[in-house]
Each structure stands twice: as structure tokens, then as C-alpha cells.
Write a structure and sequence with these properties.
The chain is of the alpha+beta class. The chain has 15 helices and 19 strands.
């Protein structure tokens, strides 16, 4: 476990912490009496004050009576605040900055510690500093990092229902909160500062609001830096057809797609339209025009956006993920009409990737889907992230299938079970199996024998 002392080492007493704490407040009027109590939300809080929104403009140094609750402190907290900043946010709504003149509670130190523990931005900074891939905020557990595939809890208190909700809601807009409470699911990207960016999923588990935060590396990486085969660049530079990047969750599919878009952007003059949920890597126009549209923010759905995209003069279309028959059908149409489509799919190998595409169609439409897919598919790159010998970093292993006449025939006939044997004999087309990739990593000393066999049991009889 990581030390709580390390976690709080850089915390200053006056750090402003995002919050969504419910506040009951009263002004002290000119007659010295408190006004009728009203409710609002503290948008940020620190050990020495908070920021609230009110409907009345106050003079500086005005006194405000506050009452609020913090997780794991049973009694309501009563405090006196003094106005040190005021701004009109919109007509009839004012932002008030307060400093605490007094906190009426015997255990003031515990109150201050609870405020510090609510700092979700600091948690995200720690996640990036420790080079973790993910942060999990889960009920009745401390914050947990995924470090090189391992789950590592931080040595801080377990999170309760109210803490989780306050922390996660603190980074949501009012519109996002409304959408989440309606659908119980929310995906978006969040940047606490220009150097940090996260892909966020908010969900409900047994009545508790929970969140998963995936670190998005700030810089686009080249295929060489990602240790991907050169054939990926050739696929990115094709004029039309479909290229699928497959793999399980957390295998780097989005990073590979971003690298392919970057190749096109640097080497060709194209209109590239990216449909993403959410937008992760931010591209800058170089030789191409790149339009990045976020599902739920810029457009309603992948399928709706895809239909409109065909009227926006695209050369390349990136579809973040293939989820339903309508999206797959429109992707095939786009490829058939002369566009290059880059997309990803959750699947552990090439066969299952193709079978998943076909299975989204009703049975009576699957033969036609096989024929169309065989005609427009360019290739499938399946990837896994495997721990290196040092167990501190991971390396990518890949399986590459390139479309040949033999592959087209077996897909057209629905005989995907024959694909592995075609890949094994397709080296002259730059194809290779996952087993071959993992064996190369073992022979070059990058991964251990145990890891190689763990990820590819069929190698147990061949590795020395």
C-alpha cells in the first residue's frame, strides 16, 4: 500500500477542492439578525473557506452563517463565514467567496482532514505521478490504482456513499449530472489541468455512485514508440476500406487509432472526421483537417453521426467503437463508397472480432453482411498489453490479419475458423499470429517464460 503521508505531503491548508456539498446559509442583516435560511451548493471548499452561489449581492466583509455535513462526521457542521469576494455569474446569481471566521465543532482537526480527503483532483494527480493506467473509486474501499496490471490501494480511508457522490459530482457539470441521473451511466473526458487528461466512466453499483478514471497520455506516440508493426502504417495510408483494431479493455486500442490518425494528418491532405465517446487525444490540424465530435455532446449517437458524416466530405472516418448493427451497417456503406474507416472492437482475437461484427446482424442478414465485409475489410490488428520482466512496464503483443483472396473467401462463406491457419502461412503479407508475437518477445528477453505461457498456453511445449 502507498503511504497516506506521501499522499497528503503536498497538500496545503488553503488548497481549493472541488465539491458539491449541500449548504444551508443565512445572512446577517443590517439589523444584526439572520435572514431566513436557504439552500445552495459549495462548488469548492478548503480548510479556510468555500465558494457558494447565492441570489443576493453582498458587501465585502458581510457575515454568513453556514451549516453543512461532511462524510463520516455525524453532527452538522456550523461555521461563520466572511465575504471576501463577490462576482455576478449571471443575472440574479452571484458567486460568493467566504473565509471561515469560526467553525463550531470540537473536532476541528477531523473536519479539516475530511476536507482534504475529498480532493479528487489530487487523487488524479497522484494517479498520473505513479504512472498508473487507471484510478478506481469504489464503495467501501480506498482509492485503488491499476499499476502495470496490478490493483494497488492507496493507504487512505475507505470511501463511503456520500464521499463517492461528492467527489465524483464535483467534476460534473449540471447537464452531466442530469444526464447521469437519468441514464445511470456517463462517459466523458476530464482535464483537471492542461497536462492531465482522463477518460471517465461514472456508474452506479448497489446504489452507490462510482467512477473509473483512465489516464490519457498527453502526447501522441508514434507506431515505433508503441512497438507496433510497420504494417499498421500501411493500413492507415490506404484510400478506402475498413481497418479494425481489436483487443480487450485496456489494451491500447484508442492509442493505436490516435497514432494512425496522426500518420494520416502528417502525410496526407484529408478531411478526417473522428466520432468518439469521449474524445481522448486532441489532434492539431497539420496537412489534414481533423474534426473531433463527441457522442452525447456534439452528436446524439455513433449511428446518427455516421449518416451525417457522409455528407461532410470526409476522406477518413474514425469510429471509436462498433456497438450495434446500425453502426456496423453504416461503416460498411462508408467503406463501400470510397472512404477509409478506422475503428475498434472489444475482442480477444481476429476470429472473435469478425464473428462479433457478423453476430450483430439478424440471422437472415448475416450472409449478406459476410459478403459485404469480405469486400471492404482491409485488415484486423489485435493487441494485448503484457507485463515485461521488470513487472513495472508493459509491452504490446499483436496479431495481424491482412485481407487476401483466401481470407475474403473464408469470410464470405462464414468459415472464420480457418483464419488462424491462413495467418500462420501469411508472413509474406506481413501477417503473424499472437503466439508468434509473444514468442518473439520471450526470445528477445522482454517477457518471462511464465508470462508468455500465461498469455499463450499453447507455447508451453515450445519454449525452452
Amino acid at each position: 500500500m502507498d503511504s497516506a503521508l506521501d499522499f497528503y505531503a503536498e497538500m496545503r491548508a488553503n488548497t481549493r477542492i472541488r465539491s458539491r456539498i449541500k449548504i444551508k446559509y443565512q445572512f446577517i442583516g443590517s439589523d444584526g439578525q439572520p435572514t431566513v435560511a436557504k439552500n445552495t451548493i459549495a462548488k469548492d471548499i478548503s480548510n479556510d473557506g468555500m465558494h457558494i452561489e447565492v441570489e443576493t449581492a453582498l458587501a465585502l466583509d458581510s457575515i454568513v452563517l453556514l451549516e453543512f455535513r461532511l462524510p463520516k462526521i455525524d453532527a452538522p457542521i456550523k461555521a461563520t463565514g466572511r465575504v471576501v469576494r463577490i462576482e455576478e455569474l449571471k443575472e440574479g446569481i452571484f458567486g460568493i467567496g467566504l473565509v471561515f471566521d469560526n467553525i463550531e465543532n470540537e473536532n476541528k482537526a477531523e473536519i479539516l482532514r475530511r476536507i482534504e480527503s475529498m480532493d479528487i483532483v489530487r487523487l488524479l494527480q497522484v494517479t498520473a505521478q505513479r504512472k498508473a493506467s487507471d484510478l478506481h473509486l469504489t464503495y467501501n474501499r480506498p482509492p485503488i490504482l491499476r499499476l502495470h496490471g496490478r490493483l494497488v490501494p492507496l493507504e487512505v480511508d475507505a470511501l463511503g456513499t456520500l464521499e463517492l457522490k461528492n467527489m465524483i459530482y464535483s467534476i460534473l457539470s449540471d447537464e452531466q449530472i442530469s444526464r447521469f441521473e437519468k441514464f445511470k451511466e456517463l462517459d466523458f473526458a476530464f482535464s483537471p489541468n492542461p497536462d492531465l487528461r482522463f477518460r471517465v466512466n461514472v456508474h452506479v453499483q448497489r446504489g452507490n455512485v462510482e467512477g473509473t478514471f483512465r489516464v490519457i497520455m498527453p502526447d501522441l506516440k508514434t507506431l515505433q514508440e508503441l512497438s507496433l508493426p510497420n504494417v499498421v502504417e500501411k493500413l492507415a495510408l490506404l484510400k478506402k476500406g475498413i481497418v479494425i483494431i481489436a483487443g480487450p479493455t485496456g489494451s491500447g486500442k484508442t492509442t493505436t487509432l490516435a497514432a494512425m490518425v496522426d500518420i494520416i494528418n502528417r502525410q496526407k491532405e484529408c478531411v478526417i472526421i473522428c466520432l468518439e465517446d469521449p474524445i481522448e487525444y486532441i489532434h492539431t490540424n497539420l496537412n489534414s483537417i481533423i474534426k473531433q465530435r463527441e457522442i452525447g455532446t456534439d452528436t446524439l449517437s455513433f449511428s446518427v453521426a455516421l449518416k451525417r458524416t457522409l455528407r461532410q466530405d470526409p476522406d477518413v472516418i474514425l469510429v471509436g467503437e462498433l456497438l450495434d448493427a446500425e453502426t456496423v451497417r453504416t461503416v460498411i456503406t462508408a467503406a463501400e463508397t470510397g472512404h477509409l474507416v478506422l475503428t475498434s472492437l472489444h475482442a480477444p482475437d481476429t476470429i472473435q472480432a469478425i464473428d462479433r461484427l457478423i453476430s450483430v446482424f439478424p440471422p437472415q442478414q448475416r450472409h449478406q453482411a459476410c459478403v459485404q465485409l469480405a469486400n471492404c475489410l482491409n485488415g484486423v490488428i489485435t493487441q494485448l498489453l503484457i507485463p515485461k520482466k521488470d513487472r513495472e512496464t508493459r509491452v504490446v503483443a499483436t496479431e495481424v490479419m491482412i485481407m487476401t483472396d483466401a481470407v475474403r473467401n473464408v469470410i464470405r462463406e462464414g468459415q472464420t475458423i480457418q483464419i488462424p491457419s491462413i495467418i500462420q502461412t501469411g508472413a509474406r503479407y506481413q501477417m503473424h499470429t499472437m503466439a508468434e508475437s509473444i514468442k518473439r518477445l520471450y526470445n528477445s528477453g522482454v517477457i518471462s517464460k511464465e508470462t508468455a505461457i500465461d498469455y499463450c498456453p499453447e507455447l508451453a511445449q515450445t519454449l525452452t
